[in-house]
Amino acid sequence: MNLKNLLIASLFLFVFLISTYIIACRSDSSAKSTTSDPTAAKPITGADQTEKYIAYLRGKRIGLVANPTSIIGKQAIADSLLALGIKIQKVFGPEHGFRGNASNGAKVQDEVDAKTGLPIISLYGKTAKPTKEHLADIDLMIFDIQDVGCRFYTNINTLEYVMEACAENNKELLILDRPNPNGYFIDGPILEDSLRSGIGRHRIPITHGLTIGEFAQFLNGEGYLANKIKCQLKIIKVANYTHDTPYELPVKPSPNLNTPQSILLYPSLCLFEGTIISQGRGTQMPFTVLGAPALKGKYSFSFRPVSIPGMSETPLHQNNDCYGLDLRQYDTNQLRQTKQINLKWLMELYKAYPEKEKFFDFSQSKQMGNFDKLAGTTKLKKQIIAGWSEADIRKSWEPGLSQYKQTRKKYLLYP
């Protein structure tokens, strides 16, 4: 090759390399431009979208249904709204109270909030439903409470009572919606009518797959409010959210759901509250461990429940070593893959328990509810005792579960 041809070839090579470098830089720049904001695709709660509702609140007397999960940014919603000049007449607090300092199942008294001076009406004490007198000086009610998507989690009961009170007194209800961390699946037996209680009021499965806003539409649409009345709703939707979007709660929804894993395990482990097996109440790891003293020798892992004020004052098996399963390292992605509550732990521990007649004995377990009410059916306990397979147990949930899934679709706000 002569010198001229060599120079030409070198020039072409140089141009090729420069072009490749420029294209690579542009691609890298483009990629960075779409990923530089790590929060861009994250869900934005209804409460955090203040631009969509603050103007609507101005000049109105507000009633606020809230608890510690009710935040704008990192500040309590009541504190934030007051700072923005919104007139809050009073706050209504659900189970665990407005500031979240009451234990599971503990009755909560009316009080005055020490920080804001606002009157707090307890909806988990002598009153479950706001009265006509409570709403007399209120123009608009706001509901902003994080739910975890389970039939036996009582926030949906509070929602129902508030909707009824609003409908009966011609008050509009503004719902600031939040993601459902367990909204990616719908599973469990449909509640039997004979088992209606404070931990299950309607014919829905254990995990209902709805946000609070969607559940409100469901209650309206299915005629579940008293006398089939309808509540006037205004819903501020969650942005950047689908039911399959993973969501880690910024605030624990209740004292004993204190980790992201406990929230995801809760639909499966809450059934144990109707058994003699401790779910870790009385420890700093509730709903991530399972055990009982009688399982000593069958499991090496152990924990000891103790009294924890504001969390679990009198836990099951208090001051006794409990032996069983440590689920803190369990990969909760398995739940996302199966889209099912885990029945295997329940079946395993029943099989391992030496005194089987005590396993489902409510008088022995001293829990908030009995197993049948938690399960929503009288069949599951009998099926486990009889040694049914998991597949056969799940078949018995049909056709009710499939019918509910179809009904649910009518009320969805998110894909």
TrEMBL record:
Q: What Gene3D superfamilies does UniProt report for this protein, alphabetically?
A: 3.90.1150.140, Uncharacterised protein PF07075, DUF1343
Domain Peptidoglycan beta-N-acetylmuramidase NamZ N-terminal span(s) in chain numbering: 62-260
Annotated Peptidoglycan beta-N-acetylmuramidase NamZ C-terminal domain residues: 264-414
The terms under GO molecular function for this entry are: peptidoglycan beta-N-acetylmuramidase activity
Q: What is this protein called?
A: DUF1343 domain-containing protein
Species of the source = Adhaeribacter arboris
